[in-house]
Amino acid sequence: MNTDAEAPGWLCAACGIALERGKVEIAYLGSAFPVELQRCPRCGIVYIPEELVLTRMAEAEKILEDK
Amino acid sequence: MPHRAQTLSPTEKPRAVLRPGGLALTEQALECCGLPRAARVLDAGCGTGAVVERLRSLDYRAVGIDLNAQGRHCVRGRIENLPVKTAGCDCVLCECVLSLVPDPEACLRELHRVLKPSGIAVISDVYDRSNPDALAGLLERCGFSVTFRQDHTRSLLEFAAAAVLQGRRADFSLPPGISSQRAGYCLLLARKDTAHG
Q1: Domain A4-65 falls under CATH 3.40.50
Q2: CB of B164 within 8 Å of any CB in chain A?
Q3: Mutation site for B-interface testing, chosen from A63, A64, A67 by largest number of B Cβ within 10 Å
Q4: pLDDT tens digits for B29-74?
Q5: What gap in Å lies between CA B43 and CA B142, rounded to an integer?
Q6: pTM of the full predicted structure?
């Protein structure tokens, strides 16, 4: 999952340093998934692009809800 | 010939098992089978050969067959026409395969042929939750007695969600005729019914 193009040059508001692409775990309804997202290398806060939330994440949630 | 356990070297990357439940489901199924070490196991539809590799590390005499077989101890061939002698296997694995082949009944009859009397078939696959007995019925028509049945639909949902999240949608598609709302995943163990031939 390439989110670099979606979040170029973001800085962590708390730490003031550039976010880096790295593996994070997204959990929903008891299931966890490793994905690559922009995260702060110091405090670990993760940036999730709105487009990702509205598309792949929304679709994955719907699948897991088994509706 | 004595059988030696094979293990992955530290530099060798384990190959992925791209199906719901992954290797953990296969190992659970084998535990249920209670096979002795050195049992002859055929992985019909072995893909990358990851399961064969794992089984050999556990001292099973495992081989794999797949149209696009990869890896050691795996050969190319069709499940409908296995290059394996009659009644030579203690166990056959057929995981996430029957829903992808044009003639699942022909595959099952061939798996039946290569199994020893009372040998076990391990089947895991997508099924239609609105017709939950169809796969078991097909197995029985092909000369098997279903001895164990377990739903693993949650694994299917997780597999599909992971594929969507990680941008690997192409790794996941349902068989024709099964909608995403009705698709489930199950594990079945079936014993070769010797009266059937």
Answers
A1: no
A2: yes
A3: A63
A4: 999 999 998 999 999 999 999 999 999 999 999 999 999 998 889 9
A5: 19
A6: 0.83
